[in-house]
Amino acid sequence: MANINLLPWREWERERKQKEFLTQLGAVLLVGVLMVFGAGVYLDNEIEGQQGRNTFLAGKIKILDEKIAEIQMLRKQREDLLARMRVINELQGNRPVIVRVFDEVVQTLAKGVHYQKLQYEGNMLSVAGVAESNNRISALMRNLDSSDWFTQPNLKSIKEDPQNSDYGEQASTFDLSFLQTNPKQSTEEENL
After folding, report:
1. DSSP 160
2. Where are the domains of the chain?
3. Which residues, 6 or more positions from 177, have their beta carbon under 8 angstroms from its beta carbon?
4. Measuring CA to CA, how many Å separate 31 from each of 14, 18, 28, 127?
5. What backbone torsions phi and psi does residue 88 show, to the nearest 5 degrees?
6. Residue 32 belongs to what H/E stretch?
7. What is the mean pLDDT of residues 129-133?
8. Which pLDDT band, with edges at 50, 70 and 90, does 34 fall under?
9. pLDDT of the residue at 1
10. Residues linked to residue 180 through DSSP beta bridges, in sequence order
11. What residue ranges in the chain does DSSP mark as E strands?
């Protein structure tokens, strides 16, 4: 029995195990490569899907931005129309006031005074005129001050005009300004 040689069996077993190891190593490498490739394909598909969703959202956002711009334009047009309507309503409401103001200008005019120029801007009236005397100008200012429609008469200038053929030597030219008020508004403000 001492002549039995077990060495080739061991060598064959070693070669078989080495082939089995290399086969398993190749299979693991193949599975690893397939997993990496599969993960790459999966991630590429996910990226493409997300890019598609992003493109879809960008398109919808663009449509919404256009609608927002249109809404803002419509709001601006609405504000413009409302401002025009306010101006028209104010003008319609002030129409009788203007008539009343001119009527009050005539009623407050003192005897011996006549106007040469009347200017109406905002709620300020400016008058240039001629009077028989300074007393007539004072009477005019008292009439304006006692009026419900006028306040704060302010005599800007007064000049003697002895050359005036209508009123004689004591005639004076004057510039006067006063504010127009609305008695209905002032009573409403007092009631508040």
Report:
1. E
2. 90-191
3. 124, 125, 126, 127, 153, 154, 156
4. 25, 20, 5, 105
5. -65, -45
6. helix 7-108
7. 81
8. very high
9. 53
10. 150
11. 113-121, 124-131, 150-160, 172-180
**Cβ contact 125:178 at 8 Å:** yes
Tell the CATH superfamily of the 90-191 domain: General secretion pathway protein M, EpsM (3.30.1360.100)
User: What are 46's two structure tokens?
Assistant: 């996910």
Residue 178 identity (one-letter amino acid): F
Most distant CA atoms of the chain, gap in Å: 172
CA-CA distances (angstroms) from residue 32 to 1, 29, 37, 44, 100?
A: 50, 5, 9, 18, 100
> pLDDT digit string (tens) for 84-99?
999 888 777 666 777 7
| Structure tokens given for 133 | 């005397």
Residue 143 to residue 137: CA distance in whole angstroms? 10
Report how far residue 59's alpha carbon sits from residue 161's, in angstroms, rounded to the nearest whole number.
81
Q: Which two tokens stand for residue 70?
A: 């249109």
